[in-house]
Design a protein that fits this description.
With 328 residues, the chain is an alpha/beta fold. 45% of the residues lie in helices and 22% in strands. It has a single domain, classed as Bacterial extracellular solute-binding protein, family 7 (D-Maltodextrin-Binding Protein, domain 2), CATH 3.40.190.170. It has helices at 30-45, 63-72, 82-85, 104-124, 165-173, 183-192, 202-207, 233-236, 241-248, 255-266, 269-275, 285-294, 298-305, 307-327; strands at 8-13, 16-22, 50-55, 77-81, 128-143, 158-161, 177-180, 197-200, 216-232, 279-282. The strands form three sheets. Strands 4, 5, 8, 9 and 10 form a five-stranded mixed beta sheet that branches. Strands 1-2-3 form a three-stranded mixed beta sheet, with helices on one face. It has a two-stranded parallel sheet with strand order 6-7.
């Protein structure tokens, strides 16, 4: 979910486990509620043996910093967008390809039925335990001084890019001038003119208060962005089977709740942006087709750059999409 940042630090006090959950998402967001739901369930099922305290608002830095701490075992868990997670699991870059999915339902089917078990194995080789998919959602473009309706509108635009290889490549293909900036630094960068635009979901835009620095928001829905909740394998290996079972809960079935809360709230947030004085433009199918045409061959460039691993994931995605269409 640009989703959420979650971390868990383990301390052993006698027979109790004290866990800390953190996220860059402020209070009142679906991600914060999801952490509260986890806290409630875990404490109940463990009969108080496992206690959780939540920390909101990005108190421990950006995604890449959190991810490295998780892998080292310094922080025991995280909720991270796939764009950032791709820094250590490059195959996830495939999921960040613009206009890869045609709908949220198609994405859900492919992620759950064709990719989850494969990525569980890949994560394991990177000292990570994949718990569940989460979600940031559909990314669109905010700008300080103009509406973005076509690729030509992005030429030369100083735009904040997620710290992701595929995101940077996308903006360069659009002939923009991307700058990779971590989440905590984006709002100051917008306010001071270091960048003049960004892309993210309406939900994350409002949660991070980025809308306060823009006047225009173009609903391009150009990237559907999943996220993941992971544990440190070093941490996991020290747990008893009973504690693992409690922390796993229902595994990837938890993705249903993450997605539902994000999507239900997200449906009304374009209206909230309007109420705050942001001008909104919804791209129609013809305008989206122009973006797609400008990206011809882009998916193959990304896949090729990732070698055999990327090719395998891309094939799984295409097979899943075909299967999904056959079920409709």
């Amino acid at each position: 979910m640009k989703f959420i940042f979650l971390f868990i630090v383990l301390a052993i006090n006698g027979y109790a486990l004290d866990l800390k959950f953190g996220t860059i998402a402020p209070a009142g967001t679906p991600w914060a509620q999801a952490l509260e739901d986890i806290k409630t369930r875990v404490e109940k099922e463990s009969q108080g043996k496992i206690k959780i305290k939540t920390y909101l608002g990005g108190q421990i830095g950006g995604e890449l910093e959190i991810l490295q701490k998780v892998r080292r075992g310094q922080i025991q868990g995280a909720g991270i967008t796939c764009g950032a997670m791709a820094s250590v699991i490059p195959e996830l870059d495939i999921l960040e390809i613009p206009y890869l999915f045609e709908s949220s339902e198609e994405a859900d089917y492919v992620l759950d039925q064709h990719l989850f078990s494969k990525f569980q194995k890949i994560f394991d080789t990177k000292d990570l335990i994949l718990l569940t998919w989460a979600e940031n959602g559909w990314r669109s473009i905010g700008h300080k001084s103009k509406m973005i309706k076509s690729p030509s509108d992005l030429k030369g635009v100083k735009i904040r890019s997620q710290e992701s290889k595929v995101h940077l490549a996308f903006w360069k293909r659009m002939q923009a001038a991307p700058q990779a900036i971590s989440i905590p630094e984006v709002l100051p960068a917008l306010q001071t003119g270091v960048v003049e635009a960004f892309d993210n979901t309406p939900l994350f835009t409002l949660a991070a208060e980025w809308q306060s620095a823009i006047k225009y928001y173009s609903v391009t829905d150009h990237i559907f962005q999943p996220a993941v909740v992971v544990y440190s394998k070093k941490f996991w290996n020290k747990l008893s089977e009973s504690d693992r079972k409690i922390l796993l809960g229902s595994g990837n079935a938890q993705a249903v709740g993450f997605r539902k809360s994000v999507r239900e709230l997200g449906q009304g947030l374009i209206g909230v942006l309007k109420e705050q004085g942001i001008q909104i433009y919804q791209l129609n199918n013809a305008e989206k087709s122009v973006f797609k045409k400008s990206l011809e061959g882009f998916d193959q460039e990304i896949v090729k750059s990732l070698g055999a691993g990327g090719e395998e994931i891309y094939k799984l995605i295409q097979n899943g999409k075909m299967e999904f269409k056959g079920k409709k």
